[in-house]
């Protein structure tokens, strides 16, 4: 639409503060991030599971997406981004819990205790931040597939948004106490990936392991996983590019750095697999790519491209070790490696942020910020503090929440439900023929003869 045509709209629809370009970009970025959950993450995880749990896996991701929107509109957004309701010694800890419709929702986007303004509509910002919140519990699903009680997940997911995600988002996105100390999380390396990764570890511990013979990944359809993977990678352009807050130079920097880190980590992971196993795999490439994407997220628009490249190259081997060396020692059944990829990957990225923030680049987003490599050791220290706080808080609050829910309903499916999967849990299945075959096998020879006689 040309600027000249704006006169056909009521003045209230196109106020002076509104940037059409920025609003268009953030709405586009919102859609890209929403696609990362639905259908991308659902497909990625479903393809990695056994056939009999593919629909249950999709349902867990979709339920988190839908329930998060309700929680976000009623309380989650304001607790994450509105003016402070809990503050101690000048430090702000949580937003005021109010529904979105009681806020100035038709005006300019403002957030945090300082009332930071953006030249986009308030509801555009609410939707963009919802997309981030929605994918976070969905990420946790990968750690607990193939044995988790869906009823327990229905309770855990929305409450987790309020008690884990919202506080951490306020601390590191909205100007809360960690921001006040100087910590920065450009696009969710802490708020999304670390909270999901450490919470996944806690929940996997609480739910327990899969059946002994099923503790290795049996991906039933890697093409589904590849489709989800591709959508997730492309969606990351909106994930990190949108956090510039508008259509700015910094948005372009973030998108470029994001893809550079991802590609570097993917190739590094393949090289490691070739060296250790003598062959490369699609799942290895996917894990490597996600490791790079996760690690660059907290600093995507704050570092130069050479640092993005280094981030990918450093993170891939560390996350590889997390999957193949650390997880077996922990004896925790994190089915799809959520903790190593998102928890460890987010931790590495968070620490590297404190080293690598380049003042030449941060000048386009937060002028004055610089990492330890550019003379500001304090930046590394506050980023390390944020890593410690977010990791411990996410793990222990999630573990405590799981134990409370266990008093209401079992966290784990019973053995029959685990053996039968989707149809037992939801009354439908992605592969109904699988259940028909099992049903036929369970019919005795005598019953078959009787059936044939009755037909005659």
From TrEMBL:
Its main location: membrane. It is a multi-pass membrane protein. SUPFAM superfamilies: Ammonium transporter (SSF111352). GO terms for cellular component: plasma membrane. It is found in: Cell membrane; Membrane. GO terms for molecular function: ammonium channel activity. InterPro entries: Ammonium/urea_transptr (IPR029020), Ammonium_transpt (IPR001905), Ammonium_transpt_CS (IPR018047), NH4_transpt_AmtB-like_dom (IPR024041). Coiled coil: none annotated. It comes from the Archaea. Residues 25-431 form the Ammonium transporter AmtB-like domain. Signal peptide: none annotated. Belongs to the ammonia transporter channel (TC 1.A.11.2) family. This is Ammonium transporter. The lineage of its organism: Archaea, Thermoproteota, Thermoprotei, Sulfolobales, Sulfolobaceae.
């Amino acid at each position: 639409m040309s600027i000249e045509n704006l006169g056909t709209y009521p003045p209230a629809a196109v106020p002076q503060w509104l940037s059409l370009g920025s609003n268009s970009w953030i709405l586009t970025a919102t859609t890209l991030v929403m696609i990362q959950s639905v259908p991308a993450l659902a497909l990625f995880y479903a393809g990695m599971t056994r056939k009999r749990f593919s629909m249950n896996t999709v349902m867990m991701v979709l339920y988190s997406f839908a329930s998060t929107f309700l929680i976000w509109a009623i309380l989650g957004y304001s607790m994450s981004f509105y003016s402070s309701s809990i503050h101690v010694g000048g430090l702000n800890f949580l937003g005021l819990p109010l529904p979105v419709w009681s806020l100035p929702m038709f005006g300019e986007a403002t957030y945090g205790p300082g009332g930071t303004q953006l030249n986009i509509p308030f509801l555009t910002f609410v939707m963009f931040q919802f997309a981030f919140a929605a994918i976070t519990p969905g990420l946790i699903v990968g750690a607990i597939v193939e044995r988790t009680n869906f009823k327990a997940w229905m309770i855990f997911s929305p409450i987790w948004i309020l008690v884990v995600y919202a506080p951490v988002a306020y601390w590191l996105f909205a100007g809360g106490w960690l921001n006040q100390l100087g910590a920065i999380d450009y696009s969710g390396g802490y708020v999304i990936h670390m909270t999901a990764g450490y919470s996944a570890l806690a929940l996997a511990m609480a739910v327990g392991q899969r059946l002994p013979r099923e503790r290795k990944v049996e991906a039933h359809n890697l093409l589904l996983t590849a489709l989800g993977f591709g959508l997730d990678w492309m969606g990351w352009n909106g994930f990190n590019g949108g956090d510039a807050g508008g259509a700015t130079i910094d948005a372009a920097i973030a998108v470029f750095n994001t893809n550079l880190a991802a590609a570097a980590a993917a190739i590094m992971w393949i090289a490691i697999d070739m060296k250790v196993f003598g062959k490369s795999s699609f799942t290895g490439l996917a894990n490597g790519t996600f490791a790079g994407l996760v690690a660059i997220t907290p600093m995507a628009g704050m570092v130069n491209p050479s640092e993005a490249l280094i981030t990918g190259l450093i993170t891939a081997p560390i996350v590889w070790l997390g999957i193949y060396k650390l997880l077996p020692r922990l004896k925790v059944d994190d089915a799809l490696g959520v903790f190593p990829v998102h928890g460890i990957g987010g931790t590495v990225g968070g620490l590297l942020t404190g080293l690598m923030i380049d003042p030449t680049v941060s000048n386009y987003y937060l002028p004055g910020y610089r990492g330890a490599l550019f003379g500001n050791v304090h930046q590394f220290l506050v980023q390390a503090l944020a890593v410690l706080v977010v990791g411990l808080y996410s793990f222990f609050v999630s573990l405590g929440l799981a134990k409370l829910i266990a008093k209401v309903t079992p966290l784990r499916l019973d053995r029959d439900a685990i053996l039968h999967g989707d149809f037992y849990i939801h009354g439908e299945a992605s592969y109904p023929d699988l259940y028909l075959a099992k049903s036929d096998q369970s019919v005795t020879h005598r019953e078959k003869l009787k059936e044939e006689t009755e037909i005659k």
